[in-house]
Every structure is written in C-alpha cells, then in structure tokens.
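Exercise 3.2. Students should predict the tertiary structure of the chain below and write it as structure tokens, then compare their answer with the key that follows.

Predict this chain's 3D structure.
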Amino acid sequence: MRRRPNQAHKRGPRRRGLGQEPHQGRSASRWAQGLKPWLAGLLLLPCLAGAGERPNVVLIVADDLGWADVGFHGGPIDTPSIDRLAAEGVRLERFYATPICSPTRAALMTGRDPMRLGVAYATIMPWSNVGIHPDERFMAQAFKEAGYQTAAIGKWHLGHAQQTYHPNARGFDHFYGHLHTEVGYFPPFASQGGRDFQRNGQSIDEDGYESFLLADEAVRWIEQRDADRPFFLYLPFLAPHTPLQAPPDLIEKYRGLDDNTEASRSRSDRTNLIASLTLQDSARGIYAAVVDAMDQAIGQVLAALDATGQADNTIVWFLSDNGGATYASGGAYNHPLRGGKGETFEGGIRVPAVVRWPDRLAAAQRVDSIMTAMDLYPTLAAFAGVSTAGGFRLDGRDLSKAVAGESDVRRRDLVFFAAETPIRGRFSLTAFNDDWKLVQEVQQGLLAAEVTNHLFRIPEDPYERLNLAEQHPDRVADLAEAIRRWRLLHPVNGTRSNLVPPPGWRAPKDWAAYPIPIESLQATEAPGMPPPEARLPLDMMHGEGGRLIYNCTPRPWLLGACLKND
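Answer key:
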C-alpha cells in the first residue's frame, strides 16, 4: 500500500537562545580532548544540558540523491517531507560529502578524514575484509556513553567481515537493515546471492518495500523506546541507489518524465551515450519513483515525532551521501552543478542537506558556509552537549554556531576528497576552500600517469565552467602538492577500486552469520608481517605508496617518518 506523507504543520517554529554551554567552539573541545577522557568528561559536566533537556537526534541519509532532485531546489519530483524540513529548518547550501558511499558514512560516524581511515578511494565490497578500525570512536558510541538510546536502521556499508565492524559493536543498541548496498528494494534483499536483512545479527524475513520497511521499524523503535531518555537514530536509506525498483503506482506516476533537459545532456561519463545509441529506456522515471517513496517514508518518521510530541526537541538532519548518479542506470540530476557521483566536481560532492530543530533553530534559514560530512559529528555533539573526547583527534569542525545563524565561518584550510570508482587507476581528486578549488583527473597506467588539472573560483564560478589552471600555474602547483601530501595518509591496505571478487571467491548464503564473532578473534589487532623494529623504516620506504603504521602522519623534517595523530 502506498504511504502518503503527512501535511506540513502550520505552527511557526520557536527559537530559544542557544546558550553557551554546547557552543564554546573548537578551543574548549580541543582543550578537553587533551585531557584523560574521564577528567575531560568530569570538567564538561557543568556545561552540559540535563538529560531531560537534551535533544533527540534523527540523522537521515539518502543514497545517491541528486542536487536537483528535491523540491526545495526546484526539482520535478514530489518531496514534500524533505521540503518540509527545509521550510521548517536550515538549508545547508554548501554541504559537502565525499564522491562515493562508504567514505561519507565513515566521515559521518567518526568526524575523521576517510583517507586516514583507509576508506577513501572506493566503497567496501562484499568480498572485502576492510572496515573502520575498532579504535576509532563512532558518534553513536559518544551519544550512548552520554545516556542516549541508539539505533541504526537501514544500510550500513562500513564493514562486515568481523563483529568488531558491526553496528552493534559501534555504539548502536539496535540494528535493523543491510550490511551491504545494492540489495534491492523487494525481498529477498540479497547481496551476491546471499540474504542480507537482519535485526541485531539475526537474519529476518520481511515482506514489503524496503524504504517503507525501514520507516515502519524506525516508527516502532521511536514509539517503544524509553521515553525518559533521549535517543539517537541513524536512518540511512538505500534509496535512490541502483538497482532502481519502486511500487507500481509510483512507477506509473512518473512514467514519461521528461529526460530531455540540460542536466541530462551534461554527461559525466560515457554510459549515457551508450544507452542512447542502444535505445535503452531512460532511468529517470523509476528513479523519481524511488525518491518519492523515500520521501513518503521520511514523512512517516516525521509524523511519529509529531504524534509522540517530540518534534520540537528533535534535531532532524537530512543529507545525501554523495552527488546523484548521472550515469545511464542512475537517473539523478545535479543541474546546474557539474558532474556527478564518483567525481570531485561540485555535482559529485555538493549535496542536498537540511537540519531542523524547532526549539532552537529559526525556520526558513540558509547557511552558505562550507560544511563537510566530517563536521557533522562535532556539530551534533555540540548541540547535544555530548563530549567528543576519548578518541583520536577529530578532523571535523564544530559548526553549531554557523548552523544556528550566529556566525559565518570562512574556510581557509583545505578540504580534500577522492574517488577511484568505478575504474581502477582512474582517480578524481580535489582540494578546496572558500577561495580556490583544484580538481585533478588522474589516469594511472602501468608506466606513467596522466594528470588533468581544473582550477576554479567557486564563489564566482559555482558551476565550474571556467578553468583557470593555465592562468595560475603556481596556485595549481601548491594545491597539487597539498593533495599529494594528503594522499600519503592512506593505509597501504585500504580500499581501492575492486569491482569483482578474488578469483573463486564465494558469497555466504546468509550475511547475518558472516561476521567473525568477537570471541573468535584475537584480543588485539594483527601486527602484520614486518617485525616491530622494521615497521618505521618500512613505513618510510613506502613513501607515496601509503602507510604501514595506522593513523600515521609523515613528517618531512623527520625524513618521512611519522608521528601518530593522537
């Protein structure tokens, strides 16, 4: 049965003073992080709101949603629930995610640069044993330690080979959903032929449409939780990722949706041309149906917050994990932004994002400061009075004051993103701030690499039409060197583009039983092949090949030796 979103409330949002306690900025946070975790937490206690006053948090992530595919950006798809969030909250018009899925999710959960984590160039494939290091402190762990109830409902995609990577081991009391991507929208929800739908490690059989099932579970969890404690709900949808499937009524609703627009002619790869030459049907209509269904599911969750009287003191943050997939089977539009998923042009990394908190944030506002996926954790923690101490130093920034409209934040330090998807050896890289942006397209062969540089001034040229690289060779050289140094942080065994499994690899029949239980694992991480005394010299010798030592930042003044960023 088709779900219909609730109508937007006519109630005007209230704005209270934000107070100073969760908004002391980076200096207080870094000072606290330098202390032992228990001492930092003790000193921060007077600054935190009481548990009963703390906001709930609902973090909603769409998968491959295009910039132009929401109503508040003028898109033709019905998205009244997302548009309601934009109307009642704050539009983050320069919010940046990584160009592909797993890196964004890693950045959201840790507040750390995916390059350091070893999850930057490509997503985590089913045959991969890569995950996020258990020593990294996830946002859910911080909120749980602060007394929050926590749940992850939807697509995980942050590791599955051992239980240490599982959501239930990363701070989430409750997990319902899929470990992988591309499991489809109808049963049996399979990855590589193996069932991939579980509740807290137990495989389940659920009948229905995936987006609606996730909404049903989220509503159940919200209604059945302990009402005396705040909650943190992470709701990452599969939609609108391929393979595109939707309820029949929605497919009919968008049948014949016009695909002949400037956005569709602005090709980001050759698949669109091949599809046209081979007379393939456009994916635009069914893509729109998938987005519509996701919006209805979001409407269910918003309605549950209204019905339980929790909407005013609940932060609802919505974003896409990367730019829309503009290749032939993707169906997304990012117009007027250039490019799409897998690229570091604006269309691949600048995503729809809104945040609503009626008790504290004025409605119908917009923020034009640069904000990234890494900034979300420290910003939410500041809003909720949750300490980020106790883990590695965060790369993200607390931008709570910018989101609240109290200040504009200039970005002078550089943001870096990368992708090597889908073709191995073909990289899209970027470094940018408020002033300049360099995009590098690197084609790496067996004996050489070809580099194409694109230099832009985004404030004057937001659609990246004027390449200034020839006019400013020194600027290109400086930014290219910054990208090179940043890429040195990547662990040697991190993700790389890897579209097929190792020869002969077989998938399990049931992915819920796949992660190796913690009790079957060694107590500490494996040391690898090099003896301890050889690790530092070998790390230095790897040079641009990456890091043998985790969380290692090479220092030129130490001849390439590294100091831990702890």
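Discussion points: The mean pLDDT is 89. Residues 55-403 form a domain with the Alkaline Phosphatase, subunit A fold (CATH 3.40.720.10).
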